[in-house]
Amino acid sequence: MKCAFCDALAVAHITEVQTDEITVERNLCEAHATERGFLSTDRQQASALKFLARIRRLIEFIKVNDRMPTPTELQQLGAYGMLTAAAGSKEFKEQLAYLETMADFVEKHRRIPKEEELPPDPF
């Protein structure tokens, strides 16, 4: 299920009782659930640190091998999606810089960044 406010995967299902006859149900991603006080900061930090470990492994792989991982390698690294930029290309450098920016943000703030806190997505 998707979040009611963005396209991220929903991790919380919230039912709000507005009156005896009216309830509103929403599925929220981790960021929106935390923002609204439905998830603890500890859970958000644990999730961010797990993400950070994965993204750091991905960055290290890209730097050591000077290429993007294959789909099988992405799965082994715990990463999702497919990175296809050719080594040395402008896209390759932009994607690597984006990943490093994401990792630095998570390391500093101990949370996943909001959309407006990131540079433009090069993927």
Count of DSSP H/I helices: 4
Write down how many β-strands occur, each being a DSSP E stretch of 2 or more residues: 2
Averaging pLDDT over every residue, what do you get?
80
Q: What series of H and E elements makes up the topology?
A: EEHHHH
Strand content bin: 5-15%
> Would you tell me the structural class of the helices and strands?
mainly alpha
The main pleated sheet reads as: 2 strands, antiparallel
In whole angstroms, the N-to-C terminal distance is 23 Å
Radius of gyration: 17 Å
Low-confidence stretches: none
Strand order in the sheet with the most strands:
1-2
**Large-scale geometry:** elongated
The overall number of domains is: 2
Helix content: 40-55%
Write up this protein.
The protein is 47% helix and 10% strand. By secondary structure, the chain is mainly alpha-helical. It has a two-stranded antiparallel ribbon with strand order 1-2.
Give the structure's gist in a few sentences:
With 123 residues, this protein is mainly alpha-helical.
